[in-house]
Structure formats: structure tokens, C-alpha cells
Structure prediction request, 489 residues.
Amino acid sequence: MSRLYACIISVDAKRDRAILLSVAQQFSNSIELLEDGILFNVSGLQNLIGDADKISRKILEELRKNSISGTIAVAKTTDTATLLARGNAETEGGSGVLQGTRVISSPDTFAQLPLENLLIDDDTLNVFRDLGIKSIQDLRRIPKDELIDRYGQHFKNVLDVIEQQAGHLLTPNVKENHVSWDYQLDSPVEDFEQLIFILNHGLDRLLTQTERYGFSTEQLDIFFKLQNKTERTYEIKTSFPTLEKTFWLKLINLRISLDPPQSEIAAIQVTSHFTPPRPAQRGLYAVSRPDPERLLLTVNKLKNLVGEENVGVPVLLDQRVEKAFELDAEAMPKGKEVIHPIGDAKRNLKRSVPKQSRRPRRSAPKQSGKIRHAENTFPVVGPRDADQQNFPEGHSLSGKDSSNRATIAFSYFNPPIPADVLIRDKKLVFLRTQYFSGHVKKYSGVWKTNSKWWDESWKAQEWDVEIENHGVYRLCKVDKDWFLAGEYD
Prediction:
């Protein structure tokens, strides 16, 4: 299918620029604004509209709807379309009357265009006038070799233009970065869920328009005009671009249900911000992975159930507090992390973990609804006691650089597990819980901790203990009560 370009030359391009841009965007995403009009790529519309003549007449209809005066040309090259449109406009003398379409299928029109429209210097034009060469048709009669020998190789560009064989590349200088859809309600709506049907229709149009521009989106802005004369805006972002309407609809509903507007909704506007599409390979040899949309929807459902402040990635705090970590919602996976090969990860793990702490992974104790393991564990860094040899929480294997320290993941029990402890000769001997019991093989401690006496004071004694055939736990004593605070994984 041949390439086609359309050019519109307006009587007042500065005044009509916004409308010209709006018309061009209905036919193309590749648009170049000119000083006296607009140039855009209409390749591929032959199957939808027809030949160049039908495309130009379709554009003409849109200009008439907006009362724009000018001329239109559709041709196989950018230079041909621009020369035809400008030549027609000059012929009419800027009368302000919409003219009929001039297309490449009419060779006589292009051949009669004056040489002044070509990129020929004034001295050369004066020579051509003296020789009686005034139009493109006249210049074609002169052998090409003689013109190139006389005016140099750069004159070949002029000859290519008049032969309609080449043209300058269209340079898009209109970069829309968003599209919007809005809807004015006949009567205010109190519950956002009543707008789902309308929003579904609006998202369909909005995402289709985004795709038509050749983009995707990872941010939608929801704007509400409320009945109490106030406004409310929600910025809904993902870490990946997607045009899946069902996903966006669910995400918007979850986000607004977390923080609904304080008044009835009178109008709604949705804005889609452009971003490059996500590259994806789906085929026989493609690796099957869960779609990131599922993770984000699950996270937002959890936020809706337990509150936004209770969902995030645990991060360590450099503070002396009872549980030195907090949940960071901003640290959620972005879908762009570097994944190292599994083999390398296993080798690094074997080198970094002491032999005595290597053990086959076992199932957690029966929870019976009372114990909840934190699936997203965090590394415990920094040795508690450099002199202790039994299970330091991040001792240096090399003894040279703290950056090479091994780390051990730690999972808190919530709530802690009550324990009975047998002490003999001031040593921990045996430990029993409602889930398991066993002899204490090794332990390190005791660490006496206390902090925040001005707020919620707490005092505790802590040990790291290895229970025979079970694992390594953190044993705590507060006053006379013993309990397991968590487990080293």
C-alpha cells in the first residue's frame, strides 16, 4: 500500500491552528504543524475511506463543519502535497473560500505550479525566468544531467521533488501527552458505584483513543465536580502500562472506595496520560508469568480490607523500638526489578549461609487461626554481639567488609507464641509451645533491651535459640512471661 500525505493550507493558520490540529488528529497520529497550515500522514486510510480523492473530500467535510477556509491536497510525498496546497491557495489569492480538493491524480495541476514554491535560490530563478522557464512543467523539459552539471548535485533534490519521487521526512512536532473524557450528569449521584456503567463507556472511548495514538497508559486522573461546589481529584497510577479496561475499572472502583468523595457527584472527567506500550512476547516459547495487573488488583483489595497503612513492604528502621520495621507502601514491586538466574542465586546463598544454619525447608507449625506468618520477610542486619558465635543475625563471613555480611530473613509471629521454658544451672534446656516442643541445642544471649520510656515503655530479655528438629527462633521474656517473637527463615 502506497504512502499518502495530506496538507491543509489555511487562510489564517495562526487563528485556526487549534481546529486544524483537531481535524488532523481525526485522521492521523503523525502531524507536523507548518507556518501556514498543517501536514499529516494519512497512509493506511485507503482501506477505510478510499483513494486520495475520497480522503481529501473527507477532510474537506471536517473543515466545512468547523468553518475553516483553505485548500487541501493529498499526495504520495510530503513535498508534493505541500506544493499543491500552497499553489492552490496562492492561485485563489487568499479569498477565504474553501476550494475543491487538488490531488496527485491530476498531474496537470502539479505541473503548472510556479517554480517560486521550490527551494531554488533567487539568482537561479532569475536565470530561469530569462530563459522562459516559469513552471515545473517547463523545468521538466530540460535534461536532468545538464541541470546537475550546471547547478551541482544538490539540485538533484529539486529534481526529485518535481518528479514526485521523494520528499522531506514528515517531522511530527505535535506531541499530545494525554486525552480526556468528561460527562455531565443530569442529576447528582451519591454513590460512585452508580457511575460504573457510565465510566465503563467512557473508559472504552478513552483507552481506544489512547491506543489510536500509538500509546498506552499507566496513569488515569479521575476528576469529580461535586454538588457542594467543590472538586475532588484522584491520581491512579500503576508501575506498568496497560490498556485493559476491566483492570482499570476495578482499580478505580477500589481506589475511590478507600476514600470516597464527601458530597454528591455532579460531573466526572477522566484523563489518560500517554506512555510507551509495554513490550510483551506471547507465544510458544514465551515464559509464562502472572500478569502484573493481578498483583496490583490484589494489593488494592487488601488495602480496601485492612487499610492502606497496613499494606506494604517491611523495611528496617534504624531505631531502638520493639519491632524495628515499618511497612513502606512506596516500596511495592514496580515490575522492573532485575531477576538474577536461579542458579546464581542458589550458589550465592550457599556461600553466604554458615553450614550449621543450612537445613531443609520445613513446614510452619499448625496455625489454627492464631499464628500468622509474615510472607514478606525482611533481612535482619548487624550482629547483636560480635563475640557471640551462636547464630549472629548478620555476622561477617570474610571479616573484611560489612557489605559482604550474610543476612537472615526473620518472620514475626503475630500474635507471639506463649512458651514454657526449662532452665537448669542458669542455662536454657527445654522449650515447649502449643505447637511444638524440643531441647535447646544452642542459644545466644541474653540481650536486655528497653526504649521509649516517654511513650510506651517496654523492657525485654531476648535470646536466639535453636530447637532440636525445629529451627531457630527468637525467645523473649517480659516480666515473668515467655514467648516466641518470631522465626529465622
